[in-house]
Amino acid sequence: MNTDEEPIAKRWRRTKERKARWLARQSQESLDRIRAVDAAAYRRRIETETPAQSQARRERYAEAHHLVRNRQSQRIRDEAIHFIEAQVETHNCGPLNIICQFRKSKNFAAERSSDGKFTSCCRKGKIKLEKPSDALSNDFLYPNFLLDLLTNPNNPDYKHFHDNIRSYNSAVPFASMGTKVVDFRGGGPYVFKVHGEIRHRTSHIQSVNGQAPQYAQLYVIDSIQATKIRVNHPANEQCNLRILDQIDRFFRQHNRLSDTYRMF
Q1: Closest CA to 221 of 167, 173, 258
Q2: Residue 13 above 60 pLDDT?
Q3: Nearest alpha carbon to residue 134 among 262, 259, 263
Q4: pTM over 0.90
Q5: Rounded CA gap, 28 and 35, in Å?
Q6: Measured distance CA(121)–CA(106) in Å, rounded
Q7: Would you give the DSSP letter of residue 131?
Q8: Which residues are CB-neighbours of 105 under 8 A, at least 6 positions away?
Q9: What 3-state DSSP class applies to 196?
Q10: In this structure, how many other beta carbons lie within 10 angstroms of the beta carbon of residue 238?
Q11: Fewer Cβ close by (within 10 Å): the C or N end of the chain?
């Protein structure tokens, strides 16, 4: 069997090589004309197909596509199995210190276009963001206590806040995220993928059926009580009561949404 297959494969390879050399000698105008003729012939062939022939063609295309995907997946798996990290060349983007002239963001030198402006930052100054303002329409400045927690290593809570920053972020939202999360099976790096749309789910102003208040419901009740409820939640067991209290009070003073939930 192999003795029959090898000459056939060799002939196919030589035919493809001859065609590739012939195409390489053609002008762009000739190539466009050839593609147009081939496309017209393909359309005529499809138009004259019977339903059975059309179904068979789709199945052949689907099978061919499936085989290509399988080969690509196998190649990626083979490369991952034989991956040797020591042989990977280090790529250094350089320091993140090139300042955008419009938005003052930090960028890598390679991100700068030939005219010295940045597209990925603000599309060369075309994107303009409104200045953030608080509930009283005052210009909003980054809160000093959060800035200190994020940037000052001498702050005694610096490491704790960084280690548990996701818990703090999840403890104070007004709504929960609702979506269908796609579970990837197998190896490889972690990928978070959703199917369909992402929704923000909220609830009644007051908790029902004896449940503990959560999300926006916590902004209706007293700040001290809300913070105690948050810190007693199992997901927030690593959070510091004092820091949560600071965040809650800051939200109530400056966040526009919290002002709409306030009870008088």
Answers
A1: 258
A2: yes
A3: 259
A4: no
A5: 11
A6: 9
A7: P
A8: 99, 118, 121, 122
A9: strand
A10: 11
A11: C
pLDDT (tens digit, 9 = 90+) per residue, 191-237? 888 888 888 877 777 777 777 888 888 888 888 999 999 999 998 99
In this structure, is the dihedral angle defined by the CA atoms of residues 194, 195, 197 and 200, taken in order, positive or negative? negative
Helix (H, G, I), strand (E, B) or coil at 73: helix
**Contact between 181 and 194 (Cβ < 8 Å):** yes
Which residues are CB-contacts of 109 (< 8 A; sequence separation ≥ 6)?
A: 94, 98
How long a stretch of residues is the chain? 264
Distance (Å) of CA 187 to CA 75, 79, 87, 183, 221: 15, 13, 22, 12, 46
- The pLDDT tens digits of the residues spanning 115-124 come to 889 988 888 9
Task: Give the burial class of 262: count Cβ atoms within 10 A of its Cβ; 0-12 exposed, 13-18 middle, 19 or more buried.
Answer: exposed
Q: Is 212 exposed, middle or buried (0-12, 13-18, 19+ CB in 10 A)?
A: exposed
φ and ψ of 222, to 5 deg: -60, 145
Position of tokens 């105008």?
29
Helix 241-254 / helix 223-231 crossing angle, nearest 10 deg: 140
Token representation of residue 69: 């995907």
Q: Which residues contact 245 (CB under 8 A, 6 or more apart)?
A: 223, 224, 227
